[in-house]
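>> Question from a student workshop board

For tomorrow's exercise we were told to take the sequence and the ligand below, predict the bound structure, and bring the output to class. My setup keeps failing. Could a helper post the expected result so I can at least see what it should look like? The ligand is CU-O-CU linkage.
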Amino acid sequence: MLTRRTLMKGALAAGAYAGGLGLAGRFGGVASAGAAMPLVARRTEALITDKGPTKGAMTYGEAEIPPVLRMRRGTPFALRLDNRLDEPTTIHWHGLRIDNRMDGVPFLTQPYVYGGDGFDYAFTPPDAGTFWYHPHCNTLEQIGRGLAGLVVVEDPTDPAFDAEIVLNLRDWRLGGDGQFIAQFKPRDAARAGTFGTVRTANWRQSPQYDAPAGGLVRLRLAATDVTRILALSVEGAETLVIAADGNPVAERFALDHLMIGPGQRLDLVLRMPDTEGAVAALKDLRGTKPATLATFRATGASLKRNVADLPALAANPLPEPDLSAATELPFILSASAEERPKDGICGSLGYNFWAINKVPWADDTGDPTAPLAEMKAGKTYIFNVENPTPQVHPLHLHGLVFRPMNSNKQAIRPHFSDTYLILPDEKVQLALVADNPGDWVFHCHIIEHQKTGMTSYVRVT
Ligand code: C2O
Ligand code: CU
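>> Workshop helper replied:
Here is what the output should look like for this input. Compare the format with yours to find the bug.
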């Protein structure tokens, strides 16, 4: 039988990163109410290329790089952001349905936190699953330099796996000398975004993880890049999607070129090959050059598990939209072309290239526009979202979950999510219950789009 201990041994084997930081850092993150552990935001050097350390990277915490916070569903969690950067920052808890005051959006839900200052975050995660956290101030620069971590919310009834591997998938904009180059080019920001030059999983190029032969691995991955959209497949091992954007899928399905955009997460069950030494590979097959993001090597005698024996994940307590009494709201994406002041305290990029309902939101001023919609708490709404632009946009809504339905472009599997990847010329409906009061940002998670106008917010009262 699998016990908690064998699971943790598996996680140790699978998570033994270069530098030897594994289990301690991972499980050091479980905090309880009242004990606000400090979480520093700081500069660091990153070992990404063979050109020596990359200077000026940014991370959270003192231990594991990149960091993973562990929480428990229904258990109060608290930490104190200790900003040791020389610029303002905040933390947004992406996908966690928590109090608006904890949402981390400067000017809208909290003041930005200057270097040397702190902010107390405290909340109780209502859902189990894979989430992440990142700044919402000077976001392109800070996430671009590495500032982001995954959040694993555990549920005591989670099925046991033989190993768990957490992957933070992202690119870096580095020059030939391994040092940072400009985070963006304006002409690319007005198109698909500016791509990184070095691709990594957990800040390493194509790392290899060991896991028990014939075992079931829970692979939790997050697309934390500021720009790149992925089309994921695993070669060499049967792999099924068990949860998307934190929430269990209604029916598991094979991972086969599944597209995910910045901000999105997947939980996969990967059945390791039976032969010791056999290797499976996670690949991004989008674009012209397929990339191997990480590999998994079978160790020991086969455990001979069967994917079909894996119990279902427990459902999260999500509000089911009442479609018979829904109010429809239009959200139309568009391009725009305006200069704007570059001196925003949270890092204005100096342009408005994008808009929602023709309004480009300057997300770093103290004077945001009015909300695009006002919703009544407890009522069902349908966002009618249209994307007449030539780009794909991962649209993220804070604080609420929606059910995507009725796309004119893609078949939608029933699921709840916080981020929807809308295709060019797509029209889709996102149905939701406005069950969490507050001002909630709705924006594209290609950060250059977010920062050049494709941001807005809705109000729930
Ligand atoms: Cu993951 Cu408003 O962001
Ligand atoms: Cu976009």
